[in-house]
Amino acid sequence: MMKLNKMMYAAFAAVVAVLCVVGLSACSGTSNSSNTAANDSQSSNESQKVQVVASFYPMADFAQKIGGEHVEVTNLCPAGTEPHEWEPSPSDVKTIEGADVFVYNGADMEGWVSDTLASSNLRGTVVCASDGINLRLADHSHDADGADAGEHAGKHDPHVWLAPENAKKEAENIKDALVKADPDNASEYEANYTKWAGEFDSLEKEFSEQLSQTSGKTIVVSHEAFGYLCDAYGLTQEPITGMDAEGEPDAKAMAEIVQFVRDHNVKVIFSEDLVSPKVAQQIADETSASCEVLNPVEGLEQDELDAGEDYFSVMRDNLKELVSALNQQ
User: Fold this and answer.
1) By CB atoms within 10 Å of each CB, which of 21, 59, 113, 260 scores lowest?
2) Whole-structure pTM over 0.90, yes or no?
């Protein structure tokens, strides 16, 4: 009898074990289903975002600020890359074709845009962010020999974003494009624009107040990028090279710049972060000036992006550098 009871107990335990396994499997299946559903939901949310493709950094930064959580922004020009001579690869063109909104600066900055758009199947909204801005004519007298064949040798100075008022207008044009592409979220785009327009206004006020009080008004810069900024605040730029950020002056041009530095008591020669400072440093060495960085905000390094730097933080760093340099004259 005891042997029979033991056999019955063993059989009962076996049944319980099987039921537990089945239960655990069911729970596991439910968990896996939940995870799959969550992943599908996340993918769906991402696919519902407005796909914005920007030609280079400031366009991407402005688009992200205005679009907020409703956009996914792709910056075509890789971090740390000088954008003047950059051109899209075939895979980049496919990225452009898949955009809901394609943002570019215009003003002869992206020499590749016209042909790319003409030959692509892009059906999304296209916005030239510099539309409505009074453009400066480019001065190619400082270009290196043969530079007129490059993509940078357009009719206009493209660096409009370096004057905060112009940057605000570019943000407004981007906002209008997002409203057109995604009218359901128009109110949020409008609200975001209002917020950032206030930030641009604050930045403009800082530049205006501080630069109006400097003792000097002349800067020597790596390339001819700061014309809009100088026009806005009563400064004069003397570029080492023209629109070509990576060009180098010949011996005659170098001698003229060195003499300019001496004649105008310039104490700081500005290089920039995405090109070699070699020539700027050479001029600084010959004139007993220092060589510092003035960032044209054409692109940020990856470590700067990781640290949370953006248009506003870089421009405020630029303002500090300008004030310090101009007060030495």
Assistant:
1) 21
2) no
